[in-house]
Amino acid sequence: MDRQPTLETERLVIRPIAEEDREPLYAIASDPAVWEQHPIHDRWRREVFDAFFDEALACGGGFAVTDKESGAILGSTRFDKYDPDEGGVVEIGWTFLSPRCWGKGINPEMKRAMLAYAFENVALVEFRVGDTNYRSRNALEAIGAVRSDRYELEKYQGKRVVHLVYEIPRESFAEGPLA
Asked: Which domains can be identified in the chain, with CATH numbers?
């Protein structure tokens, strides 16, 4: 599976992330409201954002999400962990969008394109989301993702961080709200 295709929707171009996207994405990410429910709540800080951005460049699946008409950067997302075994599984996540995009259908439009592409290659898409990130959890449930019984534990700044694992199987996507 090519984890960095260019995907287009009615309003968006989802393209591979590049170094020149760092400053426009930081302009969005520097707003603390973007991260207020996220377990890594301080990604608005320059050094924390730069490490996050460097990971997006290095992972081979990072994207810049742009407005198709104006070319303006709206946010970022990723195809992350990929396992081709047993029909294939890929993670979609690490998404952040400018607050001016919230409630405008940008996230579902972006996720619809990413899911449609992913399901050409895999049988299952996973999402990991912080247990207290209700904005993202609600957004996932609105696109048909179902919380699994799996979770992952990490530490950040000495505190426990719980990531819940949500899933959408190919069959559910074909019959779900984004079909």
From this structure: 7-175 (3.40.630.30)
Task: Round to whole Å and give the CA distance between 28 and 95.
Answer: 12
Burial code (b: 16+ CB inside 10 Å, e: under 16) for 35-52 equals: beebbebebbeeeebeeb
Is the separation of the CB atoms in 90 and 121 below 8 Å? Answer: yes
Residues 6+ apart with CB under 8 A from 17: 53, 56, 57, 62, 63, 64, 76
Q: What is the pLDDT of residue 103?
A: 93
**pTM higher than 0.90:** yes
CA-CA distance, 151 to 6, in Å (whole number)? 31
Distance CA 158, CA 137 (A): 24
Q: Whose structure tokens read 């899933």?
A: 167
Please identify every stretch of the chain with a pLDDT value under 50, giving residue numbers as ranges.
Answer: none
Q: What's the angle, vertex CA 133, arms to CA 162 and CA 147, rounded to 5?
A: 65
CA-CA distance, 126 to 24, in Å (whole number)?
28
